[in-house]
Amino acid sequence: MHQTDSDGGMAMTAIKAVVFDFDGLILDTETPSYEAFDRVYREHGAELPLEMFARCVGTSFAAFDPYAYLEEILGKPLERELIETRYKEIYSAIVQESSILPGVRENLARARELGLAVGLASSSSWGWIEPLLTRHGLLDRFDSFQTKDKVKRIKPDPELYLASLSELGVHGHEAVSFEDSLNGFTAARAAGMRTVVIPNSVTRHLTFSGADLQLESMADLTLDSLLERLDSPQP
After folding, report:
1. Mutual angle of helices 66-74 and 80-95, in 10-degree steps
2. Which of 108, 192, 194, 221 could form a disulfide with 141, with the two C-beta atoms 3.0–4.6 Å apart?
């Protein structure tokens, strides 16, 4: 068990690890993704409903394929390669301007100070995540990286989180997941973890029933306060 209080003193907590999602949680890549697809749709005289796109947030396009949906709306096949190239062009330009979300750096640094194990569990590829973490100076903040390259099933399946727990050497009830998507939240709960949900602009309309804690921003609470709340008996 790890011990701290707001003054750097000692207080008991049963939490031994924290595990973070990446897209939309550490870096807001979900909003740019929606904005890029929405722009592509508008260039074809169509609209992409936010609630439709939210289905694939935190997982893959198997849950919702924006390319196939555009073809369905237009009633004709499209050159997917051209559409994908246009999407990536718009998306990359937006993401390059994105910043690490508020509270992330502080909580990662505090987790280190508290001696907590720190993991990352993402349905994205390592090839996507590593350059962005490196660019923002966060690569060395993690003890474990679990990405879609390492597992057979991504979120909402719990495999990514179970792999993270195993590598960090903790049980589900000893770890807190930080998620922004319904798919990720579902995966963390299935892995038996405590769940902190911080929705982004794409997932804010969704309902996260059963979350231990839901925040508007990671900056809303210090990690110490957050752990204290999770340790407090629920009314």
Report:
1. 130
2. 108
